[in-house]
Design goal:
The structure is a single chain. The protein has 250 residues and is an all-alpha fold. The chain has one domain. The protein is 71% helix and 2% strand. The longest helix has 28 residues. The model has no long low-confidence stretch (mean pLDDT 88).
């Protein structure tokens, strides 16, 4: 079997092994969800290391470099800051739409939700950005094909989320656009740190500050707001502008 063929089968093999493993894993709750992401990350890295004979360290950072916390936190604070600011503006314009739902007795859930957010974002960045980019490097296709492949697979992976059932077209369009933006930043730096920071920043705002009735995971957030992806689309547009500015500087 050729190397190219092996890479074609790597992601399906990951999901098959994970599906078998998930049968014996507990279900329901933040801890169970976190355990499932630990399982899929472990399966994915094992498949890449043993089946593809790939140095999985290259998924996390560029060759010869260490994981850059500076790039990671730059992405995290950029995304979390922009999204929080837009949500606060929306709250000020329509305060009646937001309900304070934070329960101090469930503060411990913030730790569990943090772990879950980090694991979920890491799993998705490894599979839908790092893996696809390294796979594509063997054929060196145009950037647009790589970005579209990442965005399409990323959006398909979220097809069963509750918000998609409630608001299908805007939700799927957001996942597609967000996946494309994350891939553009990955290809720009050839490292996972910045898009991983963006991804965690987006998800943590949803977990801690502003959640929705149809959120994929219900957390002890400060406020519950109506389902909407307007702010996320605006942030994606701003990030694209930021990407073009940074790229033009090179």
């Amino acid at each position: 079997m050729s190397i190219f063929t092996k890479w074609c089968f790597a992601l399906p093999l990951t999901y098959i092994l994970y599906f078998v493993l998930s049968i014996i894993l507990p279900s329901g709750g933040l801890i169970a969800a976190a355990l499932k992401y630990v399982a899929i990350i472990a399966v994915f890295l094992t498949v890449c290391k043993k089946f593809l004979n790939f140095d999985v360290k290259l998924f996390f950072c560029r060759s010869g470099e260490k994981f850059s916390l500076r790039r990671f936190f730059c992405g995290f604070f950029l995304m979390a800051g922009l999204l929080s600011l837009l949500m606060v503006v929306r709250m000020l314009r329509n305060p009646g739409a937001f309900v304070f739902t934070f329960d101090a007795s469930r503060l411990y859930e913030w730790i569990f939700s943090l772990v879950l957010v980090v694991l979920a974002a890491l799993a998705e960045e490894l599979m839908f950005r790092a893996f696809i980019a390294n796979f594509a490097a063997m054929e060196n296709p145009p950037v647009v094909k790589c970005v579209l492949a990442s965005a399409l697979l990323f959006s398909i992976a979220h097809f069963q989320n509750p918000e998609v059932a409630a608001n299908a077209i805007p939700s799927m369009l957001f996942y597609f656009v967000f996946g494309a933006v994350l891939m553009l930043f990955y290809l720009r730096d050839r490292s996972i740190e910045f898009p991983l920071g963006l991804h965690i920043g987006n998800n943590l705002v949803a977990a801690w500050l502003f959640t929705y009735p149809t959120a994929a995971v219900h957390t002890n957030a400060l406020f519950t707001a109506p389902q909407s992806v307007t702010e996320e689309f605006i942030v994606c547009a701003l990030l694209l502008g930021f990407y073009m500015i940074r790229t033009s500087d090179r």
